[in-house]
Amino acid sequence: MRMFFGAIAVASLALSTAASDAPEAVVKYRQSVMKAMAAHMTAASLIVKKQAGTRARLAAHADAIHALSDDLQSLFPASSGPEKVKTASLPAVWQRQQDFGTAAASLRNESAKLATLARHGDEHALAAQFDAVAAACSSCHKTFRARDSD
Ligand code: HEC
Q1: What distance, in Å, lies between the first and last C-alpha atoms of the chain?
Q2: Mean pLDDT across the stretch 83-91?
Q3: For the chain, what is the mean pLDDT?
Q4: Mutation test of ligand 1: which of 129, 141, 144, 147 has the most ligand atoms closer than 8 Å to its C-beta?
């Protein structure tokens, strides 16, 4: 119990000092969000290709990607660039903020469509929209990420 309340105290302290989060933690957080989206993409692709999972679960994966893609730009504060900390984010993230915002908005839109189709779409439309989401991920990585491996 004491440890539990200790954890709450630490968590609220972290919230109140969010503006000065350590750059290493900021990078770790955004990489974790990215990895979570990647795991949902892998799971969704197994369902779309009918290799595993069930269609009934697809909306949950699409919803998660859509939710995590909200305000992606806020995960890249000015203090967390490659000149400050080890990161695969390229300087372009901060130099071309408008383009970066457009790339983030594209994922937001495409994942919303996937979430809708997951509930009502036919298989052909669904497969095409899955590809559109994957393209939104990789087109941002191409310009803004050092390693283009995903
Ligand atoms: C608006 C741009 C943008 C979009 C859209 C985007 N990413 Fe990323 N992603 C990045 C950047 C920049 C990095 C590098 C993060 C860092 O190291 O600071 C990254 C890193 C990653 C990583 C590596 C994480 C690690 O552990 O180092 C994975 C995996 C990833 N993204 C998956 C995805 C998937 C899947 C999607 C689509 C559902 C996606 N990303 C959409 C910009 C984007």
Answers
A1: 42
A2: 96
A3: 90
A4: 141
